[in-house]
Design goal:
Blueprint lengths: L3 H9 L11 E5 L2 E4 L4 E4 L2 H4 L8 H11 L12 H12 L5 E5 L2 H18 L7 E5 L8 H5 L4 H4 L9 E4 L4 H7 L4 E6 L15 H12 L2 E5 L23 E4 L10 E5 L1 H4 L15 H16 L2 H22 L3 E7 L2 E6 L4 H9 L2 E2 L1 E3 L3 E4 L7 H26 L1
Parallel strand pairs: 3-13, 5-6, 5-7, 7-8, 8-9
Antiparallel strand pairs: 1-2, 2-3, 4-10, 9-10, 11-12, 12-15, 14-15
Helix pairs in contact: 3-11, 4-11, 12-14, 13-14
């Protein structure tokens, strides 16, 4: 029987999520506990959000101290936590300026607006179109779902906003053919997370950067899922020896508190003058205090390098699993943004793992995605692999039995 919490939620909360039947009440590190006290090893991390794990002491302390001091004053005034986070982001990235907001969708909204405003201020108001990628995901506001290359996300919300074009990810020829005098920016995720953990082919992102340089087009990287150490570098673009003109962040930026950011070069950012864009709650003292603690932990303890090593080990273990199970078609990803493409529906695997006390999720129907906290240990990865091995073995055995 469902618990009272589940029954209450099903009555009163909008049915926009297909939730797993578990009520989580507490977390520490890579472990979560439900209301009955059962423990689960977490390889979802709030969907690549809790990169430092649950209830991290430094983040918890920062939030508690700031909550007792000052929570909100609006962006009509200066606050130290906001200035500190902006400085750390700029000092450790390509960017010169930061705009704070509340979510990834809002960060992408800001990026789209900035790209258009940049050309408007240059006297080129005809240059407003954004080229995005098929299978991309940039958010669920009207502008960001219009920029998302997945029909299932856009379905039912027509008419979507105009001004967006789409080309296949990893197709530089298709991108070159799409760019014209009306194109303001190319918007893409360095690795498509929701699109199936799809990585760029060798030389692709470098070619995109070169093409943008050649045509005077802005390059926007959506690093909402890939940023904050998730790929083994603080930002994914660092793997490829190139830099964007605009970058968006959210998810892990404050380790679970709602926070987004748009970063840009000075030449581009100056198009946003006073009154051109705003948000009431963007970068409050509370969330930026948490974010400052997150960034300090990331940088001082080289969490991206910890992620790189754990991710390489996890990837190798998944490859070994693939050798044992023909049902696995492909291992994908970088760092601790990893995926398994299956030859069957992935949902039953997720549910069987849940029964065994392991949290993972599935995307695009047939892909298992693994985005654990970046502090995950080798022992915890081994436990996850053992669980998957058992579940996949049972799944194949069950299919064979059904056929017989």
């Amino acid at each position: 029987m469902p618990s009272e919490t589940i029954k209450k939620a099903d009555v009163f909360i909008a049915a926009t999520y297909k939730r797993l039947p578990v009520v989580l009440t507490r977390g520490e590190g890579c472990t979560l506990w439900d209301e009955s006290g059962r423990a689960y090893l977490d390889f979802v991390a709030g969907i690549a959000v809790c990169n430092l794990g649950h209830a991290h002491p430094a983040v918890t302390l920062a939030v508690a101290e700031q909550a007792a001091r000052l929570v909100h004053v609006s962006n009509l005034f200066y606050t130290q936590p906001q200035a500190d986070v902006a400085a750390l982001l700029v000092e450790n990235s390509f960017a010169d300026r930061v705009f704070f907001c509340n979510s990834g969708a809002e960060a992408n909204e800001a990026a789209i607006k900035l790209a258009r405003k940049y050309f408007y201020e240059k006297g080129d108001s005809d240059r407003f179109r954004i080229v995005a990628m098929d299978k991309s995901f940039h958010g669920r506001t009207m502008a960001t779902l219009s920029a998302t290359g997945q029909e299932k996300i856009r379905k039912g919300f027509d008419p979507v906003l105009g001004g967006f074009d789409f080309v296949p990810f990893n197709d530089i020829t298709g991108l070159k053919a799409k760019l014209d005098y009306r194109t303001a920016a190319v918007l893409l995720e360095p690795i498509q997370g929701e699109g199936g953990v799809r990585c760029p082919s060798a030389g692709y992102l470098e070619a995109v950067r070169a093409l943008c340089n050649e045509t005077g087009t802005l390059l926007i990287f959506d690093e909402i899922q890939t940023g904050m150490g998730r790929t083994g570098r603080l930002f994914a673009y660092e793997h490829f020896g190139i830099e964007p003109d605009i970058m968006t962040l959210a998810k892990a930026l404050a380790n679970g508190l709602p926070m987004g950011a748009m970063l840009a070069r000075e030449q581009v950012a100056e198009a946003f003058g006073p009154g051109s864009h705003a948000t009431t709650f963007g970068g409050t003292p509370l969330v930026t205090a948490a974010s400052h603690a997150v960034l300090r932990q990331m940088l001082e303890n080289d969490i991206p390098e910890t992620c790189r090593k754990a991710g390489a080990y996890f990837f190798d273990r998944l490859l070994q699993l693939k050798e044992r199970h023909p049902i696995i078609e492909e291992v994908r990803g970088l760092g601790l943004l990893l995926g398994l493409k299956l030859a069957v529906d992935a949902e039953p695997v997720v549910l069987k793992c849940l029964e065994r006390g392991f949290l993972i999720n599935w995307i695009q129907g047939d892909i298992l995605r693994f985005v654990p906290p970046l502090i995950v240990t080798i022992q915890e990865i081994d436990r996850m692999i053992d669980c998957l091995d058992d579940v996949l073995t049972d799944l194949v055995r069950g299919e064979r039995t059904a056929v017989q």
